[in-house]
Amino acid sequence: MHDVVIVGAGPVGLLLACELGLSGCSVLVLEREAAPGSPWRTAPIGMRGLSAASLQVFYRRGMLGPLLTASGVPEVGVDSDEPAGPSFAGHFGGMVLDPANIDPAALPYRLPTPTPEFMMTSLEIVETVLSARAAKLGVEIRYGVTVSAVTQDDRSAIAHAGSHGYPARWVVGCDGGRSAVRGLAGFEFVGTEPQFTGYTMLATLADPEQLRPGFNLTPTGMYIRMRAEGHIGMMDFDGGAFDRSQQPTREHLQDVLRRVSGADVTITEVHLASSFTDRAMQSTTYRNGRVLLAGDAAHIHSPLGGQGLNSGIGDAMNLGWKLAAVVCGDAPDGLIDTYTRERHPVAARVLDWSRAQVEIMRPDPHAQAIQGVIRDLLTTRDGTTYVFGRVTGSSIRYDLGGEHPLIGRDAPDLRLADGTRLGDLMQDGRGVVLDFSDRSLHAPALGWESRVHYVSGSARNDLGLSAVLVRPDGIVAWASDDAPDRAEFERAVGQWFGSSAL
Fold first, then answer.
1. All domains of the chain, ordered by start, with CATH?
2. Angstrom distance (rounded) from CA 308 to CA 313
3. pLDDT tens figures, 158-195
């Protein structure tokens, strides 16, 4: 019996497998596809945007270099200890923002980091990097396995595929928006029905010059002309009426493109095409007994804002260290319940973010009027900074208690006097204590040394912190600006390892 069986070998399932394997858990990944790789996962159709928060994950686990190399992105050189202004701000409902409008004063814990602020890559590249990492960690991946049932008792769960069962202490569904695990394990999935049918296609156009590059909001919908020739996205406000069980024909795609673009453009050949909707749904809990959900299996929404993959990466990082701690006997079972408590509100905000964008894009006078107001607001520093925080994930803060404003946020990449960075210290999956004060917090009697790096000394830019405790997922669990209170620190450590509070 394995410690954990993960259903789904996409980025979320593979990252979770890596996190568990890093802690020594025995992990089996089951994937229904016969083999890795498909045209839908390669460029250009398979291109996805990775936010700074997601790229930090690859950096902190030593996978950033391979990811950048495979994606053809140069490494970021970091010589300064003071951050430059953001160069990426994102968009809201197709309205692209100017990064020059971002207010740096509203980003008080921002520090330079070797990670890009944003980058495009393909699902194939992400999965190749993660698969290689998983193999080194002893994770087993089996392709061509379709899960048909999930059963469990108070000690284990079993993913059934036909007559064969795969028992484990825990089963995690990372099998996408049409998750089999979610339905088979009895999770409740609630939300809102679609307003539009979206299409993505790779096609040959007779007259592509009739379409403007980039995002284009129109009185009848939106179309996106991507950088790759013939890669087009469209949103048709038909109430999600197109039957997704059908393959969209060339004639249908041409009709939709002409309607939403207002151009008499001609599609001569369709190479790849699929449809989607803005249906926004979320599981009411991410845990049912010994079965868990992550990524699109737990929440689905339109691709507006490009937050689907990034949300799934956040799920995997939050769940990974907690599930590993429970499997390894370092924490009680209740720690896993904090996964839902922390990540469910994050996904709920993303769903609302998606709904808000859809609403202002609707082709009616009321929506167009609201769009005009929003467009004006997004030219202001406050408006741009707000969207930047939502798109990049920098505004996420878990409610972990404590008064310090850094607690619950992603840790800045603090750099010690010798040049060592926080990210360098996190590659083995352990937490980190950085003690910049002259009062040592190191205490072998506490018994947490095998799970946390303790580092003392001065920093090149300590942001006024005297000490900080960082969880394995990069979230600050405790911080102090003053000479650290030892009793307060010990309570934070005990809360982390001895209760379900984190």
1. 2-73+90-189+281-392 (3.50.50.60), 197-277 (3.30.70.2450), 422-498 (3.40.30.120)
2. 9
3. 999 999 999 999 999 999 999 999 999 999 999 999 99
